[in-house]
Amino acid sequence: MATLLTALGLMSGTSMDGIDVAGLRTDGEAVVERGPTLFAPYDDAFRTRIEAALQAAKAINVRSQRPGDLADLERDLTLRHAEAVAAFRARFPDWTQPDLIGFHGQTVLHRPGQALTVQLGDGALLSRETELPVVYDMRAADMAAGGQGAPLVPAYHAALANSLPAEFRAKMPIVFVNIGGISNVTYVPESGDPVAFDSGPGNQLIDQWMQRESDLSFDQDGAAAAKGRVHSTIVAGYLNNAFFAQRAPKSLDRGDFSLTGLDGLTLSDGARTLANLAAEAVFAARMQMPDAPKLWIVCGGGRKNPHIVQDLRALAEQAGSEIMTAEDVGLDGDATEAEAWAYLAVRSRRGLPLTWPTTTGCRQPTSGGVLVQP
Does residue 158 contact residue 352 with C-beta atoms inside 8 Å? Predict the structure, then answer.
């Protein structure tokens, strides 16, 4: 049996709300021992800087380019990650000396059609600041092998599925749904490689709508949507986007969907309509799965929006399948992606595949990541 390593996973996702830190002990294969978690929120001013970076990043043609404020932002973002690690180690004394860190960074550009993906984050600086080994830049090798560079979480989803209690494992095939800014799905069969792809907009459009139409940054607990109604013609218009007909593997950039078409809606109707879109987009993914899933497990911030979950549950029940949240099966839906980055760091260090042709479209199972020592 391979040696278990202790890793910290760091994730700053498309919602741009802060840094998730999660501890994990794993062999990078079947053994998954989940540890404590911590969330370090971004202040509004820093979040605004990241949003501005998304515009500046559009000028990037080579991954190493850092136009505008991006170089300064990369340093500041990395130092915030170092502070989050320090806070985690101070709060959880049993986790002060992990074997390594898995560092995602902040995606500011993702153009799989051009084999171009950019995550801000200086792995060497983080390693120096934390005095720990760091694995980062885990998407580039997949793209070099012809893959989309996303999603990378499926390797961990497959391990989680196989570590669930027997009552849930009996419901395979299982689909893990991660509803962040963008949603992705991982189909885990009883045997064989996982199948995965980005499925469509998740919280991102709801957040943008709330920011544009109110002084709120997101629709907490679906409170705005609770007063609205679904405009099904608008949802249908979004679902006519060519992305949904595109065969998997496929991935999205944050800028691939916009609020075009929602003008004139009330705040509540817009929030409710976009919540329904998030659910419909996830459920439409079943059409590209090898077999009908029996169980869908919902992770990510979107599971806290009751309208997304209830709409998804209604759709699934019509198809004879079941919806559960991560917590229903004993997992932490907020920490799944950060845990995944810890798991992937261990796989990277062992030279194991992070991606497969069925998850990103790479030509062969592909490892990746850059290891830096303090």
Answer: no
